[in-house]
Amino acid sequence: MRSHSQTFFASLFLARLADQILLFLVPLVIYQTTRKVSWSGLAFTAETLPRYLFFPLLGALCDRISPLKLMRVSQIYRAVACLGGMAAYAVFGGIGWLVVLSACCGVLTSQGVVAREVLLPQIFKSQRFEKVLSYSQLADQMGMVLGPMLAALLLGWWHWQWAVVAAAILFLAADMALALWQRTSRIRLNHPEPASGPWILPLKTALAHVLHLPGLKQVIVLAAGENLIIGVTLATSAAMVTGLHHQSGQYYAGLQTAGAIATVIILLAVAHAPWSRKTLGLLSFTAIFAGGLCAGLSPSSWGYAGGFLLITGFDKMFNVYIRSARQQIIPSQDYGKTTGLVILLNNLTQPLAGILVAVFSAPKQTGFVIVGLALCMAVLGLAVAVVLPFFRRRGALEQTSGI
């Protein structure tokens, strides 16, 4: 990667760092204020749900407005939302302002994510795209790891309001890094086509691509299957480690740190090893499936830890495979609108996994839920690898015989 690209990835890192501070603060502050887990969960839902629901609309926006401009707007207005929320809190009081500003930042984060997806193929045309995605994921991962740690450190020094102000400063720093990259790079970006027709038209185009572009439905099904395991892991890891396996909070924190380290090592391997896209997909999908079985079936905490590390470590490799695959499939002029819809469809299975965990909430049943979802993931993978190609070949033979 060239030196000026470092400022671009630094911008991604700083924005993710600030975003993770807010994601960490909301449920914690709500719980500390109300002492009710239910309110904490509702606040987390209010914060995260808009991130998914707005993806299709924001994707369409990226095909009408410069994605670089949208990235800068995303970062500046997240800082404005943080400072505005704290000003409203100072004047009117009430913990609801934290939820409101976090929900606004969530939507703006989604805007930045889709804009980044549109920008990356244009910025790094001469680079192996899997390598580019690995560095992008590394910037995200470092922010996801360090964000909660920084938030906890800030809470140890100051009140939570100052942690929100720190997040605003990080968002502004992310925009400064992006502005510096824009000035120092000589990249010529594609200009979006002038907007025409109603807003519903881009969504219809995206849906048509999902239904008819060869290979896109398969990529969506694979991602949805993988997100079943990611969703159930996120929803149950704390309960499995500290409840079923009777380990301490320090053990759980160490496991989370080990998962982050494993992810970084795997992403560095992806960035420097010339693996094919098919190899990345097969290896990561198989490892995550094996991790789900191990985490769900193992009677010991060390067995669960091994499964957890497989799931969290290879998740980012699978993301590299998925993002590079859809970049090859989706036409560049419709990349934003289609990617926004695809991201929404990919992530619908995560809340589904959470619902299943809530229904089967007994500790001894959780392992069976994990195994069941791992098997569902395997069935979806086999359907994509074997069943769908079989019917495509059969349909092609029938058309040939009918000529």
Total number of domains: 2
Largest sheet: none
Radius of gyration: 22 Å
CATH fold field value of the largest domain: Growth Hormone, Chain: A
User: Mind telling me which CATH architecture of the largest domain this is?
Assistant: Up-down Bundle
Please give the structural blueprint:
Elements: H1 3-34, H2 37-53, H3 55-62, H4 67-92, H5 96-123, H6 129-157, H7 160-184, H8 200-212, H9 216-244, H10 249-272, H11 277-297, H12 301-329, H13 335-347, H14 349-359, H15 363-402
Question: What does the model show?
Answer:
The termini are far apart. By secondary structure, this protein is an all-alpha fold. 43% of the residues are buried. Helix 9 (216-244) packs parallel to helix 14 (349-359). 86% of the residues lie in helices and 0% in strands. The chain has 2 domains: 1-185, Growth Hormone, Chain: A; 200-403, Up-down Bundle (Growth Hormone, Chain: A), CATH 1.20.1250. It has helices spanning 3-34, 37-53, 55-62, 67-92, 96-123, 129-157, 160-184, 200-212, 216-244, 249-272, 277-297, 301-329, 335-347, 349-359, 363-402. It is globular, with a radius of gyration of 22 Å.
Can I get a quick summary?
With 403 residues, this protein is mainly α. It is 86% helix and 0% strand.
Features:
single chain; 403 residues; mainly alpha; Growth Hormone, Chain: A; 0% strand; disordered C terminus
